[in-house]
């Protein structure tokens, strides 16, 4: 058999579908490793798999998030560039400097994460026309209450830019796909987030990896869990309101009386809001704030929880919910489109922004038998195992990279391959 190949710069296409590795720059995330944040976790999971496939991935890092590190971590090239750490300048300054660093490195692909960073996606289109530009639309950030009118205007512009300047735009949820089609008449590529499925032997007791439960005086299966950045859009205040009222109204209920609520997360330029949450929770000693947690400590908190609650008002594709489902945990969520896509059991949905509705659903869940609760958790695990796999999402991304590069950067590639085949 005769094989043929066509050199496309950094890529080689052949009749066997072979290619050389891609040099990819990830820009927009806070850094690596992923201590917290859905975008950061997304970038980490995808990047770690891309390097296993033989590609070169550079993840740009902010010192305040990932430390002052440079070099190889888990096969990923970490590059720390400066920024100005204020709410309005942190992301845009870091994106600007990272963009020019990536252009200087002559990467094949610059991949922006988030509509804010996509504001600068025009720069490589002007200064590096042979670089493929991709943007992932993670969420409608302008809905977040922490932003003022100017920032919201810029984020709205970033939404538009994410469809104008990148060669291809990715969304992580069908609701975002519909939004982009309606608002911008834009074609996007749906590539979902994934999760890690935790398949442990149910007959073998789980041994905690850290002392986090002891540190906060927590007992297994005696607390509900929320893992989230503490920003108004995540609606932690709604959960606290519901939980406090539940404890006050059902003191005679033994399960309610001893139950605790654990809130894992911290401020993201939202110190005033976080202070208001602590004040709101001060009337109830069973509400525990742990700040951000990661690694073994976060795993112990997930595994030890009775159930997971996510009261967000707006979302993209909530990784914390996927993670809880991957642990086989019953997951109670607000009835927004991004949650309804994930949670198949209508009894585990409550009306968003409504603490009374949430309180009612928590009590309903607590009154279920252990067998019923376990069945809900197992159904969650089965669903995400089937539909949300990081390996599959990474393969979809690689396919998009390759086809987009051939289409936009080397548009004659298909013609050249066809000619080579005819000559062979």
Coarse morphology: globular
The Rg value, from CA coordinates, equals 23 Å
- Secondary-structure arrangement, i.e. CATH architecture of the largest domain: 3-Layer(aba) Sandwich
The overall pLDDT, averaged over residues, is 90
What's the CATH C level of the largest domain? Alpha Beta
Q: Can you list the strand order of the major beta sheet?
A: 5-6-4-3-7-8-9-10
Cα(first) to Cα(last) distance is 10 Å
Task: Label the structural class.
Answer: alpha/beta
Number of domains: 2
Strand content: 15-25%
CATH topology term of the largest domain = Rossmann fold
* Fraction of residues in helix: 40-55%
Quickly count the helices: 17
Largest sheet: 8 strands, mixed
**Stretches with pLDDT under 50, minimum 5 residues:** 1-9, 11-17, 412-424
Give a count of the beta strands, DSSP E runs of length 2 or more: 16
CATH superfamily of the largest domain: Glycogen Phosphorylase B
Pfam families: Glyco_transf_4, Glycos_transf_1
Domain Glycosyltransferase subfamily 4-like N-terminal: 36-195
Domain Glycosyl transferase family: 216-379
Organism: Candidatus Magasanikbacteria bacterium CG_4_10_14_0_2_um_filter_41_31
């Amino acid at each position: 058999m005769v094989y043929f190949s066509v050199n496309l710069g950094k890529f080689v296409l052949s009749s066997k579908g072979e290619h050389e590795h891609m040099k990819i720059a990830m820009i927009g995330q806070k850094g690596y490793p992923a201590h917290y944040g859905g975008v950061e976790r997304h970038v980490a999971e995808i990047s770690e798999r891309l390097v296993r496939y033989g590609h070169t991935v550079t993840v740009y890092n902010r010192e305040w998030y990932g430390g002052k590190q440079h070099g190889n971590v888990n096969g990923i090239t970490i590059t720390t560039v400066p920024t100005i750490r204020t709410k309005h300048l942190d992301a845009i300054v870091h994106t600007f400097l990272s963009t020019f660093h990536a252009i200087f490195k002559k990467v094949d692909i610059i991949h922006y994460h988030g509509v804010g960073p996509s504001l600068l996606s025009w720069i490589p289109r002007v200064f590096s026309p042979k670089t493929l530009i991709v943007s992932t639309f993670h969420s409608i950030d302008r809905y977040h209450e922490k932003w003022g009118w100017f920032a919201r205007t810029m984020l709205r512009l970033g939404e538009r830019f994410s469809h104008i300047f990148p060669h291809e735009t990715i969304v992580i949820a069908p609701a975002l796909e519909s939004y982009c089609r309606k608002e911008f008449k834009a074609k996007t590529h749906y590539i979902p987030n994934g999760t890690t499925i935790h398949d442990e032997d149910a007959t073998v007791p789980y041994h905690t990896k850290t002392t986090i439960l002891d540190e906060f005086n927590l007992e297994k299966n005696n607390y509900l869990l929320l893992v989230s950045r503490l920003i108004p859009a995540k609606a932690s205040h709604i959960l606290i309101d519901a939980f406090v009222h539940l404890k006050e109204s059902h003191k005679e209920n033994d399960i309610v009386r001893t139950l605790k609520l654990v809130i894992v997360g911290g401020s993201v330029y939202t110190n005033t809001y976080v202070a208001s949450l602590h004040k709101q929770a001060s009337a109830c000693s069973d509400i525990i704030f742990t700040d951000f947690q990661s690694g073994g400590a976060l795993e112990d908190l997930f595994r030890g929880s009775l159930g997971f609650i996510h009261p967000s008002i707006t979302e993209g594709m909530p990784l914390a919910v996927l993670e809880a489902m991957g642990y086989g945990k019953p997951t109670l969520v607000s009835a927004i489109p991004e949650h309804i896509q994930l949670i198949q059991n209508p009894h585990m949905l409550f009306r968003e922004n409504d603490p009374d509705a949430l309180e009612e659903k928590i009590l309903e869940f607590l009154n279920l038998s252990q067998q019923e609760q376990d069945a809900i958790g197992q159904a969650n695990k089965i669903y995400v195992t089937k539909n949300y796999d990081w390996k599959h999402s990474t393969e979809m991304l690689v396919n998009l990279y390759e086809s987009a590069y051939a289409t936009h950067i080397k548009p004659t590639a298909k013609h050249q391959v066809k000619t080579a085949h005819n000559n062979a």
